[in-house]
Design a protein that fits this description.
This protein is mainly alpha-helical. The chain is built from 3 helices and 2 strands; from the N terminus they run ββααα. The protein has a domain of about 50 residues.
């Protein structure tokens, strides 16, 4: 199940946390279709922020900024 320490996820034993560059490399030749409600839209915006990051460790402002997510929805 994992746990949270502040805004950091501590994954359960056996899980691997991926760096942004690992996710970018894995998904570089992929297309995705996201269908759903506002929760899905928020998940997409978070993933979009991670895939477009230039840092190995993505900070919360990079995935929670108004330029990434439409805060008026």
């Amino acid at each position: 199940m994992g746990s949270w320490f502040g805004d950091t996820l501590i994954p359960p034993d056996g899980w691997k946390l991926c760096l942004a560059s690992e996710l970018q490399d894995f998904y570089k030749d992929s297309s995705m279709l996201w269908v759903g409600d506002s929760t899905c839209r928020r998940s997409f915006a978070t993933f979009y922020g991670i895939l477009n990051s230039t840092q190995e460790h993505v900070n919360v402002p990079e995935i929670d900024d108004a330029s990434v997510i439409d805060i008026n929805k």
